[in-house]
Structure formats: structure tokens, C-alpha cells
Amino acid sequence: MASAKQAAVEDAAPVITENFADLLDESFGDGLEGRVVTGTVIALDNDAATVDVGMKSEGRVPLKEFGTDVTLNVGDSVDIYIERYEDREGLIKLSRERARREEAWHELEKSYNDGIRVTGTIFGRVKGGFIVDLAGAVAFLPGSQVDIRPVRDITPLMGNPQPFQILKMDAQRNNIVVSRRAVLEETRSEARSELISNLSEGQILDGIVKNITDYGAFVDLGGVDGLLHVTDIAWKRINHPSEALQIGETIKVQVIRFNAETQRISLGMKQLEADPWDGVDAKFPVGTRFTGRVTNITDYGAFVELEAGVEGLVHVSEMSWTKKNIHPGKIVSTSQEVEVQVLDADPEKRRISLGLKQCMDNPWDGFAANYPIGTEVEGEIKNITEFGLFVGLEGEIDGMAHLSDLSWDKSGEEALEDYTKGDMVKAKVLDVDIEKERISLGVKQLKADPFEGSSGDLKKGDVVTCTITAIQDAGIDVMVNESVPGFIRKTELSRERSEQRPDRFAAGEKIDAKVTQFDKASRRLTLSVKALEVQEEKAAMQAYGSSDSGASLGDILGAALQEKQKEADTAPGEEKPAKKKAAPKKKAADDDAEATAEEKPAKKKAAPKKKAADADDGADADA
Description:
By secondary structure, this protein is an alpha+beta fold. 24% of the residues lie in helices and 34% in strands.
């Protein structure tokens, strides 16, 4: 009975074919937690949708997770992310947003592995960069990856879908890093290659000003940049490119130069306009006057704009008749309107020389007309230099009195010591050179030359009586007529070499000599005692015979001496130029009588010359 009863129970009990773990997985949805499944909307209320995902319990999803652009109805199938099976209310925790994110991650991983660009929208700013929405996934955009060049204002980029390149993905950290710059560089490289292949000089293109520097502007031609130099922006002078251009401005440019090897492109804007220098020599003929505006001032002059794009240079030497060695900025100022005269025009070199002073009266012409040569003027000493005085004259011009024209009797250096800057001085106009703008003045010319009066009729060959003023190693300084300086060189003191000694004379002594040179320019006489001795010897020989006829030199000189003594006795009140020579001649005759026949005539002349001064004093005493 027991066995039968047991067999009946076993027949009635169900047969368990699955284990407990399988039943548990089936009960909890076969391990769907953390996965995306397809569910059905079974109910809608004000703020949520009830979704059946095929499990024992349903889940609620907030309607805002579906987006405002999605219309949801009962019965619609939707992809839902199962966060956890049951919450405290017994419902499954579902998320549409997480589902979209998981879907996006799957697509993004595929694009990242294949190197394909993705589309995203910048919607926020964080430290170091920006937040990008990649179809539900949130990515980080570093600030350095926004553009090729730094972007000051990113507002125009926010909210607009743009292509990005995924640089890094980390699913565990839920981290995605993207770059907009990589896309731009790649696109730029493609556009650059296409543009360069079709680029040629003279081509006209549209470009956007990307950056401005002191020397020009960089223009984006659509994938490649070109340099627009400041000198090629406009025909007129532009000091800085910012005066004519702005960043982001679209401009039309022409390719001036293109180097295919270095891929450097030089652009120009002014080349699209007519050259104002064409026919400039006809528009601005030499000698005509125009009014222009000062555009720039340099150390060497000022640039004046005659018309838009045409400038001329007023050199500093052509700015003023009287102001010399002065900076042009002290004569004119920038933007000043001035009248100028065209001095020269060279269209090939694009140069025009202008003159500012030519439009004013020339004070040098006025001075030459009002003060002819020989006129006496008066002015203030403006400056004293090593070569003379500069005197201020009428018309703000200066005249110069050279140191050689300051005094008749003083040297130039000594005469300069008598003047002080600021003193008023009178002078005479000696010369006016209008072309060189020079006026020569003379102070000493206000008085008569004392040399002319004292020199009288002195001329070369005259015999004069000199007063010794100084003894030098090279000779002696003498004074003739108390005001005419002269010099007797050492070799001209005597015929005898032994007597050619300056030290045998003393200052204050009187001596006869012959004028050998009379230089009025240097105001100095050159004299010779030796030449006088030769002259007297020749005259004596002509009058009293020669040594060839039997007369000795002593006899001849003695006879000549006696003749002169007679003349002196006849007119004792008159002092002859040769009177001082009488005593020496007499002495020569006595010495000649005592000399032997072997003595030479030169030796007979030696002793009398030494005592010439004593004999002269004796002759004066007798008189």
C-alpha cells in the first residue's frame, strides 16, 4: 500500500526540468538590466509614459526625455534603457535619455574606429573648453581645438551643428574628446591644394582679413593665406593697416607674386585701382605751386600729399631760407596745409621734389639789394668760432667776419678775444653770394689800413734804415718807418759766413738793408744786408776802378768812403740811408793798409762789419 501510494504521489508531482538560476533569470527578464530594449507605450499621463518591456512590471519614463519634437502615442515602440528592475514602488527604472546615449556611443565608437567625422553642437562652456552634444552623447571640446587660430568670441559657433573629429573615447569614464580644428585643417589642406593648383599672378580673388600686423594684413583666400603688405593696400600713404582694414572684413585682392615652391602669396589692393602717378609730370609741372597736406615728417624732410596717392618730398634744405640744421618738425607739423613749389618730377622713380622756401621771399636777394658791397651794417654777434664771428643781420640771416678781417695790427686769434657773444658790432659788407647764401663782413675795413700809409712808396730794391725789434735763431725782426714789419734771414745778414750770426745784434739797434721782397698781402717786408753790401761794392768799383787795373779792394772802398764822408760834411743836417755805413767803410780802409798782400778781400770786410754800429754812433757824434 505504501509503495503504491508513493508511486501515485510521484506520478502526480510535476517534473522539474530547469534549475533555480534559470528560473531567476527568466523571472527578472533574462539579465536585461543595463541594456537597451524595445518597449511598448501602454499609457500616457501628464508628465510620463508607461512602457512595457516584456517583464512582470512596467516602467515609467518622463516625457521630457523623448524631446519636444517627438509626438508619442499609446502603442508606439520605443528604445528604452533598463537602469534597474524594480524601485520602491515595484516599477522598473527606465530611461529614454540613457537609451539615446547608448545608441550614440555605439555609433560614435564606430565613427571613431573608422576615422569618420561626426556632427555635434556646442551648447555650453566649461573650464578649459566647451561642451558638445553628439546626438545624445556629451563630448569635451578643448579651447585649443576650436579653430586654427585663437578665437576671441565663440558665440557665433554655439548652437550651430558643425563637424568634429573624435580624438579620444573612454567608455568606462564616459569621456569623449573632439576637435573642430582637425576638421578645419584637413578641409583647409584640401582647399589649399586645389587653390594653389589653379593660382596664378594677376588673378583677382575674394578674401577675408584674418589678422593685422604692423607691416600688413593676412588674408584668407579660402584655405590658403596671403600677405597684403601695407604699401600695397592703397596708393596713398598708410601708416598702419588698421587705418584701412578690419579683421573679418571681406575684400577683393589681386595676386601680385606667387612662389609655388614656398607657397608664399603676395597680394595687393591698390593694383585694382588706376595708378595716380601716370602722367604726373604733366599734372605737376616744374615751377608751379600747389597746396598740399603734410603726411609724414622725417629727419631729412617732410612728405606732402598733392593728391590721393601722390606725395612729394620737401627736403630739409628746401624748407627755410634762414633756418639751417633744424629738425623739419620745428618748421611744419603733420596734417598741416602748406604751399609748395615743384622743383623736380620723376614719374619712373615715382619721386617729386618740392620746395617750401621757394614760396617765400628770398631774404638774400633783399639784403643784396638793400646793402651793396661797401655798405656799413650793424648786428648782434650770434656765434664765435675758431674762424670768425657770425653776426645777425636784417631778414634773420647771418654774415661772417673772418678772423683775418677783424684787425689790421692784431692776429686773428688775438682779435677774437676782444669779442663776446651777444655784443653789437659794426662791420662793412665785403661780398654777398646769393647762390651759396653767404655774406662776408669786415670789421677792420671800417678804418684805413695803417700799413698803406706807413709803407708809403716802398718798393723792391729800396735801401732803408731798420730798427731791430727781435732776435731769432733764423734771423732778426725789424721795423721800417716805425710801422712796417720786416725780416732779415740769417743768411742775409752779411756776405761773410762768419758774420751771419743774429746774436751779434741787439734789439733797438738800427741797421741799413735792402728791400728784396714787398708782399702787401702778408703786410711784410723781406730785407737783406748782404744784398746792400753787394750793391755798394759794385757801385764803388764802377766809380773808382777795379782790382784788375791795379787798385786793391781796400783802395776802392777807402775812396768810396771818403766820397761819402765829403757828402756828409757838405750836408750835415741830412741823415743819409748809407750814413751809418760810413764808419765801417773807413775802418775797412785802415785795416786794408795793415793787411798783408796774402789777405783775402773777404777778411778785410769782416772787422768793419762787426763794428758798424760803433762807427755809426761815432758818425752821429761828429755830426
